[in-house]
Structure formats: C-alpha cells, structure tokens
Write a structure and sequence with these properties.
single chain, about 750 residues, five-stranded antiparallel β-sheet, disordered N terminus
Length: about 750
C-alpha cells in the first residue's frame, strides 16, 4: 500500500463551538505591563521596579493582574495608597500549562494531560491599573488559637505523575504508513515513550503521609493512556504488586481509567504503580499521559516550601495543625485562601507544628501555604508596556487580513515590504480590497493570552473578525515562515528559532487551513487563507514584485490571441516508479484533462509521464523548458515526492525563463508542501520545492498547492477532481482561494 501514499494534507501558498476569543479580559482604555514566568512559585514586584516603568505612584488598590484571561489575586504590603520604597506586590505565579490547549482538540475530551503545555512552559502575565475597582486582593485575616477545638485530621490530596518524554502524535489511519490528522486528535500530547507489548512502566509515589483513620474516603487512582498501534489490547494496573484493574483499550483508542483502591493500598506511605501492556501482538505500542493518586492525607507537607491543597466547605471554619513544612525557621509562613481572598500569617510558636484558624467558607476552597523566607520569593524585574490596539475600531477593520511579523517589515533603506503588499492589495490594480496588516505579536497577546507562537491567536482573531467586522472577511494572508508545534516545542530554546518561526501554523502535520476553521469537528476553512514562507524582507519584496507582474499580465488587454493564450496552457506531469501505479495516475490525469479542456476553461493540456525508475528523457525536459518560456497557467503533478524532490525531475525553477508568466502549481505527492520544519539550512538556501518555486526571483510559480504529509491516492483524486471542476465550471473566474474552499472535504488541510 505504500506506493499509494502520495499526500493528503494540503497547504496553499496563496491566498460553532465556544464563542470565547481570549480577548474578553482586555480593557482597551488601560495600559498593560507584560512579563513572563516559566516556573511556578511565589513572586514579588517591588516598588522600585514599578517606579522604573513609571507607575511607582499608583495607589496599591488600583493594581490588577491577569494570566490566561483570568484575574490573579494580589497581596500588597499596604492595602491602599502609594507604596513605599520597601513595599511590594506579591502573588502566586504559575507557569503555563495545557489548559489553554484544550480548545485546540477536535473533541476536548481527547486531551489526556492538561498539566503541560504543548506550546511552551512560559506564561505571560499582564499587570494593569484599574481605578474602577473589582481588583482581587488577599486581605490580612487575624485569628485566635482555640483552647479546646480539635484540628482537622485529613484533607483529600492528589499526587500526580505527568509524563513529557515525547509528544505523542495520537490517532493514525494505517494505510501502509501511519497517516495523521492535522487536528489535535485523541491520544495527541505529552506522554511516555512507547510501551511495547509485555512492557511494564513502574512509578513510585512516595512520602504520601496517608490518613488511615475511620471515615476517610477510599483512595482513587486515575490512569490516562492511549493506544499507538492497530491492535486490540488490554493493560493491567498493579499497586504495590497487587492487580487492581485490567482495562481494555483497543487500537488507537484512549482510556481515562478511574480505579478505586483500598485504604491498605497507600497505608505504608508509598505506592508503586505498575502499568503493563498486556497485548500479545508483537510490536504493539501504547503510551501513558498521566497517573494521579487521590487519597486522604494528614497535614504533613513533606518538607515543602510551598504546598497547595483544598478543603471542603465548612460553615464553622477550620483549625489546622501542619507538620513537615519548611518555612526557614524565622519568618512565619503565609496561608493564602485563594477562593475567599484571605491571607493568614501562620502561628509558629509551637514549631515545627504550624497552626492556623480559617474563617467559615460556604464553598470548597483552594489554599496555598508559602514560605516567607527571604530566599524563597522570586523577583520580577522586567516588564514591557503594552497598549493594545482596538481592532474593532473601524479604521482597523478589513476584508483582506495580512498577518505578519515585525522582523519582515524592516527592509533596507527604511522600506516595509509587508506594508507595500498591503498598499498594493488596497489599490485598484491590486483588487481594491480593504487590506489591513496585523502584527502576530499583538495577536498573540490579545487572542492567545500572550503564549508565544500560540495558534489560537490566529484562529481566534479570524473567528472574532468574521463576526465583528462590518465587511465580510474574504482573505487571510500569512507572511512569514512557520514551524509545526512539535518542532517548535523541541527547539524552543535554539538560538535560531526566531529566525525561522514567524507566524504559527496549526497542528502536526501543519495546516494553515485549520487556522481559519471553527473549533471542533467542522474542519472546513471559513475564509480563504494562504502563506508566504518568507524569512526576511527581501523575500517578501521579491514575491510582491512577482505578484504585480503576474496580475499585470492577467489584466493586460490585447486583440492578439497569442498574447493571452499562455494562460490556457496546462501541464500535467506523472511521476511513478512502477507501471501499476503509473496506470492509475495516468488514468486520473486523463480525467482531469477532459474536465479542464471542456466548458469555460478550454485548456491546452500537455502531458508528461514517467512510470519507471529510468531518468526523464532529454526531449521531455526540453519541451518543458519551452513551455515555461511560452507561459504556463497551471501545472499539476501526480506522483511520488518529498519536500524537496519529485519522481519526475524538474530543473531548478530559476533556470526556467518565464518572467511574469508564473503558473499556479499543484503537486499531489508526499510532503511537497511541508516547509514547516525547523532546519537551519533554510537560513542559507530554500530547502523545499514550494519555497524554491514561489520564491524564485522572476521565475518559478505564483502559487504552490501541495501536501504537508502522507495521503491516499483515492482522496487526492477526489480533491483534484473537485478543484478542476470548480476552476473550470462552478467557480470559473474566481480566486484560487475560493476554488479550494469549494472542496467541502473534511480533513483536507
């Protein structure tokens, strides 16, 4: 079957669910100050740091802090008025996790591990000044130790193991090769490495400090796992050597197992969790995303300097005596009631036993005990000012949206090729669009919570613009190379990542079309979208020059048929290494020829076919040279390919003399459109076919439609049949973006 895999997931070099867009938290009348946190902990912003950015005289009660669209409660050393030079803002800052990723999945339940972000560990925080009030605060709350009240005996605690040995690609269609969807699918995300049949994964949960008295709830073990091969299977779960569950998880299915345990399972204070792949089929594979043990625990915090826990609602309040907490031995630690906004300075008179009395609470509360030792809090020393643009303002609205990066807007001699492209598209010659440019960094902050390279920034912005803008959004043009999220995550710290990753794409294999789709199972782009995979301003300027030449040729009026006939020239190329596949592909090409030579298009089709491993005949090469020089409107390839080669050897596009007569190129073959990899060679050469043809100076193609992954001949045939029918009949004369959106095929990306 491998020979029938030629490419399914398509990307173009041309142009329901939740109604949350991630920008609901922004007040456009306020200035924000952005900073980043990559490790969870207690943080402080000192008054001198605030003064350094010009807000040192702000009344303490006016400060407000946001993370991932939610307000973060603050403690200020003075509750109101101006902070003194020794004062500070204190808050609990959590690194980025996987919760914002949930909406990326086709089905939110597919996410198996929400503790680790697929994008980055770094969270963005936004400090602002809000005089209107409603700013969340921790209020100092005093208490008196009871003389006879018994302390709480236990609380329900969760210890977890969250695996990040790899990003699992999840569900696959197995058709000779493993073919993956660009949508975030079941089993996709951070997991263990593959566990083959008869393999056991053992994890030890130590220092549990369980409560074994009467009345406590039973422990519960949760195991989230996924299959990774097309086999029926079961996996077994043991705790301290005793089998507690056997779970069925066939093929690529996932399982969120919830396993009740006995109190004896954790009574020793340690639990060894063993998960075994019980499949009897050789080379079967499965992965584990997380293991969580929820159990009653005594108030022993195991030597931690910070500890989070929960207590149920209690209208009488709670008295706690806490052991095993490392507070430094001098300064009393603080207990934050995050739910109710209260701050308790814990009594240390009986240390090492710490004591605190909590006021009544009508709801379950989230609590945090933190050390106040001078070495424990981390300092925020750098903040960047952000004054958000209100894209809903009429002057910021458009129907042709250009999303790019500042690095591509800084050309030589103060030129800005991105702005020049916008100006051209706004001109009568360029289509008379209402073209607007949007900075991807601004979109990330407004629509992606500031999470770097977050694909939700683009998807949410497009969704928001479609319902907000007075004129319907028709086109989205991404200017800047992207890197698929798996490679970006792997190379996030590489020195050259920001030279090759400008505008994010969606999923793996990469799909720009899904950036223009609604969340959920409907994966059809709602607007035409395309990308120019440029890495510097010169490449943007080069492509703009080609666009102007090409569209001038399109608009040129002449009584001579010969001046315009080149636009009807179509080249079909088949590249296969064996006669059987070649027969199938040639038959498909004949059908395409019948479609495009008929009705409105009236094409003049030239076909070239190589169905063996022998080299292309020189005569064929020479004829292709001549066709390029005369002008080609469309050339379509069907056959084996990679990101950089075709089975039918075409020369370097720079060697074809076809200035201003640039074809639209459709390549139906594996990976030919996959320019979403991180490869530093791209800094010195154009490594992929699509980049070579689209970015060839006054040569090559005007657009390149190709796969970013494997696919199936049958589906490619359906796709191209519909493309040709639309281009020739139903959408004749329309833009290529409109033609491609006519397909209405799910999973075409």
């Amino acid at each position: 079957m491998k020979k029938f895999l030629l490419g399914l997931f398509l990307t173009a070099s041309v142009v329901a669910a939740s109604q949350d867009y991630n920008n609901e938290w922004i007040n456009y009348n306020q200035t924000y100050y952005k900073f980043k946190i990559g490790a969870t902990g207690l943080y402080r912003i000192s008054q001198p740091v605030l003064a350094g950015i010009g807000i040192g005289n702000t009344p303490a009660e006016h400060f407000q802090l946001w993370r991932n669209g939610k307000q973060i409660p603050l403690y200020t050393t003075v509750p109101s008025g101006i902070l003194g030079s020794g004062d500070f803002i204190e808050f609990w800052g959590e690194k980025n996790d996987g919760e914002p990723d949930n909406i990326l999945y086709r089905n939110p339940d597919y996410q198996l591990n929400d503790k680790i972000s697929l994008q980055t560990d770094t969270a963005a925080f936004f400090l602002t000044i809000n005089p209107a009030g409603g700013n969340l605060r921790f209020v100092n709350t005093s208490f008196t130790l009871p003389s006879s009240l018994l302390p709480e005996q236990y609380f329900v605690h969760t210890e977890g193991k969250y695996f990040a040995e790899r990003i699992n690609r999840g569900y696959a269609a197995v058709v000779g090769e493993y073919v993956y969807s660009s949508a975030y699918d079941q089993g996709e995300g951070f997991t263990t490495n593959d566990m083959y049949n008869a393999t056991t994964r053992s994890e030890t949960f130590a220092n549990l400090y369980p409560y074994v008295g009467s009345g406590a709830p039973v422990p519960v073990l949760r195991v989230n796992a996924s299959g990774n091969a097309l086999n029926p299977r079961q996996f077994g779960v043991k705790v301290n050597g005793s089998l507690v569950a056997t779970e069925t998880m066939d093929f690529f299915d996932y399982k969120k197992a919830v396993i009740p345990l006995s109190a004896a399972s954790v009574s020793s204070g340690s639990a060894v969790i063993e998960v075994t792949n019980l499949c009897t089929t050789a080379n079967d594979r499965m992965v584990i995303a997380k293991e969580e043990l929820t159990y009653p625990r005594t108030f022993n915090f195991g030597g931690a300097e910070s500890f989070q826990f929960k207590l149920p609602a209690n209208v009488s309040g709670n008295y706690l005596e806490i052991e095993g907490f490392n507070f430094g031995g001098v300064t009393a630690p603080v207990l934050y009631d995050i739910t109710n906004g209260k701050r308790y300075v814990v009594d240390i008179s009986g240390a090492p036993i710490l004591k605190v009395v909590l006021t009544p609470s009508s709801s379950e509360r989230k609590l945090l005990l933190v050390s106040q030792a001078s070495s424990f809090p981390k300092q925020i020393i750098s903040l960047q000012q952000r004054s958000f643009l209100n894209y809903a303002a009429s002057g910021n609205q458009g129907n042709y949206l250009i999303i790019s990066h500042p690095a591509l807007m800084n050309g030589p001699n103060a030129t800005n090729p991105v702005e020049e492209y916008r100006a051209y598209r706004s001109s009568t010659t360029g289509g008379g669009h209402v073209a607007k440019t949007y900075d991807i960094n601004e979109l990330v902050d407004q629509f992606g919570f500031g999470i770097k390279k977050n694909p939700l920034a683009i998807r949410n912005f497009i969704r928001w613009a479609r319902i907000t803008y007075s004129s319907p959004v028709k086109n989205v043009f991404l200017i800047g190379k992207g890197v698929n999220y798996m490679q970006h995550r792997a190379y996030e710290g590489h020195a050259d990542i920001d030279k090759l990753m400008f505008v994010p794409t969606f999923g793996e294999p990469a799909s720009d079309n899904l950036l223009a789709a609604e969340p959920g199972l409907n994966e059809i782009p709602q607007v035409s979208i395309g990308r120019l995979s440029a890495i510097n301003p010169a490449e943007v300027a080069l492509y703009l020059a080609k666009v102007k030449q090409y569209e001038q040729q399109q608009a040129f009026q002449s009584p001579m048929i010969s001046d315009k006939a080149w636009m009807k020239n179509v080249v079909h190329i088949v590249g296969a290494s064996d006669i059987n596949l070649g027969t199938i592909l040639n038959s498909a090409m004949d059908r395409y020829k019948n479609i495009i030579t008929d009705t409105f298009y009236g094409a003049n089709v030239n076909t070239f076919s190589k169905v063996s491993s022998t080299p292309v005949e020189p005569a064929s090469n020479q004829k292709i040279y001549q066709l390029f020089e005369n002008g080609i409107g469309l050339w379509t390839y069907f056959g084996h390919s990679s990101a950089s080669t075709l089975e039918f050897n075409l020369d370097n596009p720079s060697n074809y003399n076809n200035q201003s007569k640039y074809p639209v190129t459709v390549v139906m073959g594996c990976n030919a459109g996959n320019f979403y990899n991180f490869n530093t060679l791209r800094l010195i050469e154009k490594e992929t076919l699509s980049e070579k043809f689209v970015l060839a100076d006054q040569r090559g193609s005007i657009a390149f439609i190709a796969s970013t992954h494997f696919g199936i001949v049958h589906y490619l045939d359906i796709y191209n049949t519909r493309t040709y029918s639309a281009a020739s009949i139903s959408k004749y004369g329309k833009t290529f973006g409109e033609i491609l959106r006519n397909q209405s095929l799910k999973h075409i990306t």
